[in-house]
Amino acid sequence: MAVIGIMSAMHEELAAVLAAMPDEQRVTVAGRDFWVGHWQGHAVVAVLSRIGKVAAATTATALIERFGVGQIVFTGVAGGLGPGVKVGDVVLARSLVQHDMDASPLFPRHEVPLYGRSRFETDTGLSDSLQRAVQAVLADVQQHVGPEAVTEFALQSVRLHEGLIASGDRFVSSTAECRYLQQALPEALAVEMEGAAVAQVCADYGLPFAALRTISDRADDDAHADFSRFIRAVASRYSVAMLSQWLKSL
Ligand code: ADE
């Protein structure tokens, strides 16, 4: 099987991934540490995506050009936008859009100039196999995060959502901006800062791409509350459990 690129949005997630890799070797390219090794018997390269569309696109390009990965899976957190997309839920991207792309009136709003489209689809086979792993983990959240985190973050009835993720170079942390995005992109389930850029790079190279995001906030006036604690106690544990389960299933 082709080498698998794993892009983690957060240090805590990457640390947990590295703890599961028995033989990782660090290779530094473009100021980024790429970790080359194996996980569940599969050849993987794990890397911190960095934050924002340009940084993540550069990381993805290096993964492809310098490390020859044949597919990329992205994990991280996102703000919930869609109705019923709540903290602790997981969103599996089926397509991604840059919510801050606007070259109008030269091109329709959100369309990426010269691509003739605004949405970039994820790979169906890759996403379907991840979906099964996510469902298995969400069926027993307590096993992965412990009973205290389940109570603290009200994780009693977490759900998997699938659909559109919106990316842009803004941490959305006001109810007004959240409403604006909900109106501009009514189908968007979640907002984050990298996914659509990596999807575009993978489309350029013809590589399968999938993206998973744990909802850490509702992209509103409370978006910053307990962010670090949530990432440590919940999101990074979900990510590792889901990726590990997925790799085992391959
Ligand atoms: N990642 C996690 N929460 C986010 C938010 N509210 N806006 C942008 N990116 C995020």
Write up what this structure looks like:
- With about 250 residues, this protein is of the alpha/beta class.
- The chain has a domain at about 75-250: Nucleoside phosphorylase domain (Rossmann fold), CATH 3.40.50.1580.
- The protein is built from 8 helices and 10 strands.
- The chain has a 5-stranded mixed barrel with strand order 5-9-8-6-10.
- Strand 8, helix 6 (about 175-185) and strand 9 (about 190) form a beta-alpha-beta unit.
- Helix 1 packs parallel to helix 8 (about 225-250), helix 2 runs parallel beside helix 7 (about 195-205) and helix 3 packs across helix 8 (about 225-250).
- The chain is globular.
- The termini are close together.
- The protein binds adenine (ADE).
- Adenine binds near residues 77, 78, 191 and 219.
- Adenine (ADE) binds near residues 217 and 223.
What topology emerges from the helices and strands here?
Elements: E1 4-8, H1 11-20, E2 25-29, E3 32-39, E4 42-48, H2 53-67, E5 71-80, E6 90-98, E7 119-121, H3 124-138, H4 141-145, H5 147-152, E8 160-167, H6 175-184, E9 188-192, H7 195-205, E10 209-217, H8 227-249
Parallel strand pairs: 1-4, 1-5, 5-10, 6-8, 8-9
Antiparallel strand pairs: 2-3, 3-4, 5-9, 6-7, 6-10
Low-confidence stretches: none
CATH class of the domain at 76-249: Alpha Beta
Summarize the amount of helix as a percent range: 25-40%
The geometry reads as: globular
Quaternary form: single chain
Strand content: 25-35%
The helix/strand series, from N terminus to C terminus, equals EHEEEHEEEHHHEHEHEH
Find the count of extended strands (DSSP E, 2+ residues): 10
